[in-house]
Amino acid sequence: MRALTVQQPWAWAIFNGKRIENRTQLWRYRGPLAIHAGQRLSDRGMGDERIHRAVRHWQRGVVAHGGATPLLRDALEYGVVLGVVDLVDCHPDAGCCAPWGEQAYVEHGGRERRRITHLVLERPRLLPEPIPCKGLLGLWTPPADITAQLEELTR
């Protein structure tokens, strides 16, 4: 099993309707992928209309089950593995994968536009309790004890 660190609220969104993760390189790996919520909050993500729509949908579900309207900031967790998805495809952007697929983005603080690769995610399985774990950049292998816990979700 491999893992991917994703900034919040994008990591939350993967378990709330987001089926495309945007990256800048093609990967050969296919299979179970642990989603790790990084330590940073993406200001761009918090202002993104796609996230706002997912939050409104999530809030309606919580209220429909008798809960109070939650705030996204209160629900976000950091430095934890949230769950597992299946990485089923990885392809360069071709104007596809709406609404989550992006075409290009500007690096943090720079002017360079980077081409985007779409990671196609299926079957999100959220853990009952997130697992604290230090993340890494790129595609990485979780520690053996965490992998053992996550393999329960891949069956």
UniProtKB/TrEMBL annotation:
<protein>
    <recommendedName>
        <fullName>ASCH domain-containing protein</fullName>
    </recommendedName>
</protein>
<dbReference type="InterPro" id="IPR015947">
    <property type="entry name" value="PUA-like_sf"/>
</dbReference>
